[in-house]
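Before the break, one more example. Copy the sequence into your notebook; we will annotate it together after we see the structure.
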Amino acid sequence: MEQRSIKHIINEIQLVLSEKRTALSVLRTGIAIFALPLSVLTVLVATSRYYNIFEVLGLFVPLLVICVALAIFGVVMMIRSTRNIRRYDRMVDSLLSQSGYLKSLLGEARLLEEQEERD
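Here is what the structure looks like once it is written out:
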């Protein structure tokens, strides 16, 4: 009976970890979306001596609005994915605490990692 519940717990942990990988992918995408407006503004500042801002104001204002919207969207994606990652970590800890065998196995693995880091 214990073996069957361990298999069930491992399957649930694998499912949660796949969701965590998806959240990490969303985090990576959010960082890229946030960085895009910053690089566009960097190019605009670097080339600002070649144009007069008041002559291109009709193009500049919509571009700034789009950049601000992209930056906000990127930040929202990063915040949501960070919350999801933390939630998935708590779920994995909860699932591991349901089995003494898995908990002891993870504890031994962590001890081995700590010893390798010290060496």
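Residues 2-118 form one domain. The longest helix spans residues 2-46. Try to locate both features in your own notes.
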